[in-house]
Amino acid sequence: MTEFPAIITGGGDLATFLSANKPAVDAALDDAGALLFRGFDVPDPQAFDAAVEAYGEPGFTYEDSLSNAVRTNVTPRVFTANEAPPTTEIFLHHEMAQTPLYPSKLFFYCEIAPDKGGATPLCRSDWVLERLQSEAPDFVAKVERHGVRYTNVMPGSDDAGRVRAAAGAAR
């Protein structure tokens, strides 16, 4: 079984690494589903923006997603995860699943690590589906037959305390 997420360790500038190694990075991403870059020099959002640009795919701004979550752009390609207070719990979710337009790849970056907690959980949805098919085949069949409908009730104004999403740079 492929390690998830696959970990790529290195040093130096992440933008330079991504630019020089895009085919290998793409192959590792296709295999694992998610990559974690460790040991690279990404000191600030501008360096992270440069790394996403160096990856070399068309940009996808948060605004392009038509999402209604409250986010603030830090650079053209980097935006805050959310504007909620640190006490707000963010549940596992499919990033931008509620939007009609979404990127094919997402980059996440942590500028200031918390003293405790703060990890972004990742989950392979294909593995979840395989387990559901094995443990709850009737439920999976019902969902396949009837589909799923989501309802989103929007407040009259932005309420950062109710934000339930995580984000980064989208491609």
Taking the alpha carbons of the first and last residues, their distance comes to: 27 Å
Global geometry: globular
- In order across it, which strands form the biggest sheet? 1-2
Order of helices and strands: EHEHEHHE
Which structural class do the helices and strands define? mainly alpha
Mean pLDDT: 83
Computed CA radius of gyration, to the nearest angstrom: 18 Å
Report on this structure:
The chain has 171 residues and is mainly α. Helix content is 30%, strand content 7%. It has helices spanning 14-32, 45-55, 125-135, 137-146, and strands at residues 6-9, 35-38, 106-107, 169-170. The strands form 2 sheets. It has a two-stranded parallel ribbon with strand order 1-2. α1 links the parallel β1 and β2. The longest helix is centred in the N-terminal third of the chain and has 19 residues, at 14-32.
What is the compact description of this entry?
The chain has 171 residues and is mainly alpha-helical.
Lay out the secondary structure.
Blueprint: E1 6-9, H1 14-32, E2 35-38, H2 45-55, E3 106-107, H3 125-135, H4 137-146, E4 169-170
Parallel strand pairs: 1-2
Antiparallel strand pairs: 3-4
Helix pairs in contact: 1-2, 3-4
